[in-house]
């Protein structure tokens, strides 16, 4: 009975678009709503594909992520995530590598543009009511993508290993140390037995201060874990757009 009520809830219907029963209708839906078998929606409202409705903000965000991936991979050839060489590698990249300054600046400005475009995209979705049922699940996925985008910018900020990066991450991780329950300096940390060597700040830095451990951890997060999570969530995001009937239309 409880499972039946769960399946009839708005939360369940926002995640699972149709039942799993083996019926002719569900077999047809499995084909027409599958992004690999049937790329485009069965039908799309004309107003939904007008430029002035979406401004291509989602597609432009994807373009910025692709630019970030390509330039980031190229930058990895000239960068070593250790305190002795990180800053030196940045300077050598700027002044000795052919088009090195252009490559680094493209990566940097595409990152800024990606953050701005994600926020504008979510603002557009909110103002057009595109987060409402049955699209609320995809809205949650979009919020997670926003968080990952901000974390990508935050973790990448430390990699040049200059004074600006060092102190910015010091301030940022101090804020993590003041997080309720999870930070050593935050309220209610005694309830979970949190101390300076097991709190959220220590998890991020691998130490009590910004140093070599923090640089390596931020490098792994920035270049491996967060991009992989972003790719997975973007695939889910695009799949849900397809499953929900294409680009959201005006109400």
Automatic annotation (TrEMBL):
Presence of keyword Endoplasmic reticulum: no
Gene Ontology terms: biological process: respiratory electron transport chain
Membrane-traversing stretches: 53-79, 109-127, 139-159, 218-239
InterPro entries, per the entry: Cyt_b/b6_N (IPR005797), Cytb/b6-like_sf (IPR027387), Di-haem_cyt_TM (IPR016174)
Domain Cytochrome b/b6 N-terminal region profile residue range list: 1-250
Protein keywords: Membrane, Transmembrane, Transmembrane helix
GO CC terms: membrane
Pfam families the record matches: Cytochrome_B (PF00033)
Molecular functions (GO terms): electron transfer activity; oxidoreductase activity
Name of protein: Cytochrome b/b6 domain
Organism: Desulfosudis oleivorans (strain DSM 6200 / JCM 39069 / Hxd3)
Source lineage: Bacteria, Pseudomonadati, Thermodesulfobacteriota, Desulfobacteria, Desulfobacterales
